[in-house]
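Deliverable D4.2, example record:
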Amino acid sequence: MFARFPSFALALAMTFVGTNVGIGKTMVAVMPVAAFALWRFVIAIVALAPRYRPSAMRRVTGPQWRNLFVQTFFGTFLFTLLMLSGVRMTTATAAGVITATLPACVALLSWAVLREHPSRRTLVSIGLAIAGVALLNLSRADTHGTGASAATGNAWLGNALVLGAVVCEAIYVIVSKRLAAELAAIDICAYTHLIGGAMMLPFGVVGLMAVDYAALTPGHWALIVWYGLAASVFSFFLWMRGIRHVSAQLAGVFTAMVPVAATAYGVIFLGERLAPAQGAALALTVAGIVLAALPRAGSRKTLLPARD
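Output generated by the structure prediction step:
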């Protein structure tokens, strides 16, 4: 299915990521960032336990383990810490404006690292996605105002942390493009989260001791479990399956679904109103994603063999 419809896998993966932005912001208000991040890895490792077969892990080559480490460090460990810390210190609107630069960042890195020269169609789809997300966040700024931003003197640091997370995510996209051609998506997911859990353990243990467990409701625990599965398993697996069949630049366009999904989550679950300007922004972003998803003549000839 994902070989025939890679755009569906990529869009769904980034939708999970977008909704998790709101969930993460809720949870870091009741527990330290490192503690919540560690729970994410623990849940993923438990869910993926059947994939940790010594015989299969011995077949992974040294260069592949190095790429897995790089992907883990930037795409899971550092991204998680930077994004959760950033949204805790800045407004959701500011974070959304910054994440709107992700498609362009991916395109620049794919050109520099993978030598993928952007086509006109790719440039147009990237432009539409960026324009849509930028308009979306400008409309949110008009709606919500800047009071929250002005209320905290650490907003500039939060913005810098979110920008760092964007760079980490772009690096993750580039590295995942290479790994997806060599290893099964579910194994990449399992190995990176095992490595990430080991990285997060020293920070998370300290954070766990500072959690007020009496204040956590069953709803909080449900969000923790869902965040761990959606961020570490579902979105990761879908992304690795989808990116095997498109260029890194086109895959980057689908990251525009992150702020779009975050806004939709607010409208559906938090009772926020969708203004006309926001509707126009969503239309622009979806247009860019649809343009990127349209099949090209002869595109099936370039598909990589599926690795399940």
